[in-house]
Amino acid sequence: MPKLVVLHGPNLNLLGNRETDVYGRVTLEEINQNLTRLAAKHGVEIFCAQSNSEGEIIDILHREGANADCVILNPGAYTHYSIAIRDAVKGIHTPVVEVHLSNIYAREEFRHVSVVAPAAKGQISGFGPFSYQMAFYAAWHIMKENS
């Protein structure tokens, strides 16, 4: 059974309450439940985690991501400046799909650059909670190709 890791970065635990005009009212728990249902439907083992700590995100990538068939990663604000997370993505040799709820290219200029994207297989952004479902299908396709 293929294994998928879903890793959510800083402040995503506040989804549903935080800047609802940007991120909507869907909670992180609801996103994880939807992904868990998709995984069960497609015979994929899933591990979901969230951390506000850069070091913990790196540790999870090392521990869980390196032993997975694919990773869905929303690095949150670390997207724009964490070379350490970028290096962890590159270092685990596991395909990573970077995901964002909002269109980072339509927001403040400092959000237009992702230092993680060059290390990822691809990036999906701007579709709200549906971004995660799109990321799941991208990951599923990658896992099928690599099996």
From TrEMBL:
Record-listed E.C. numbers: 4.2.1.10
Keyword Cytoplasm annotated: no
Record flagged with keyword Lipid metabolism: no
Keywords of this entry: Amino-acid biosynthesis, Aromatic amino acid biosynthesis, Lyase
A Pfam family annotated for this UniProt entry: DHquinase_II
Main EC class the enzyme belongs to: lyase
InterPro entries linked: DHquinase_II, DHquinase_II_CS, DHquinase_II_sf
GO BP terms in the entry: amino acid biosynthetic process; aromatic amino acid family biosynthetic process; chorismate biosynthetic process; quinate catabolic process
Pathway annotation from the record: Metabolic intermediate biosynthesis; chorismate biosynthesis; chorismate from D-erythrose 4-phosphate and phosphoenolpyruvate: step 3/7
UniProt-annotated site: Transition state stabilizer, residues: R18
Catalytic activity: 3-dehydroquinate = 3-dehydroshikimate + H2O
Active-site residues per Swiss-Prot or TrEMBL entry: Y23 (proton acceptor), H100 (proton donor)
List of residues binding substrate: N74, H80, D87, L101, S102, R111
Molecular-function annotations in GO: 3-dehydroquinate dehydratase activity
Coiled coil: none
Function: Catalyzes a trans-dehydration via an enolate intermediate.
Family membership noted in the UniProt record: Belongs to the type-II 3-dehydroquinase family.
Assembly notes: Homododecamer.
Protein name: 3-dehydroquinate dehydratase
Gene from which the chain derives: aroQ
